[in-house]
Amino acid sequence: MADLSMLTGRVVFQYLVPVHVEVEDGIVTCVTVIDETPVHDPILVEGDADLLPAALAAADDGQDWPSWQFGY
Tens of pLDDT along 27-58? Predict the structure, then answer.
């Protein structure tokens, strides 16, 4: 397990997860992120690459995830 005490800054990473998309009459009505998917092949977006293992451990330690944000 990574040492979470070393995680003192911001680390942003991304990885692919499956989603369930519902389309009704040509309009997306619901997008559900299937968040039980383990992190696989993460890509560092921002932050210290040395802290990525600790960030991954924090993301998968059983804590509730914050609300989802869709779009840019």
Answer: 988 888 877 777 889 999 999 999 999 988 88
Strand partners, 46: 12
Three-state helix/strand/coil letters over 18-55: CEEEEEECCEEEEEEECCCCCCCCCEEEECCHHHHHHH
| Alpha-carbon radius of gyration of the chain | 15
d(CA 52, CA 58): 10
What does the alpha-carbon distance between residue 53 and residue 1 come to, in Å, rounded to a whole number? 9
Model confidence, pTM: 0.63
Of 57, 40, 52, give the one whose Cα is nearest residue 13: 52
Give the per-residue pLDDT at 9.
80
Angstrom distance (rounded) from CA 41 to CA 13: 10
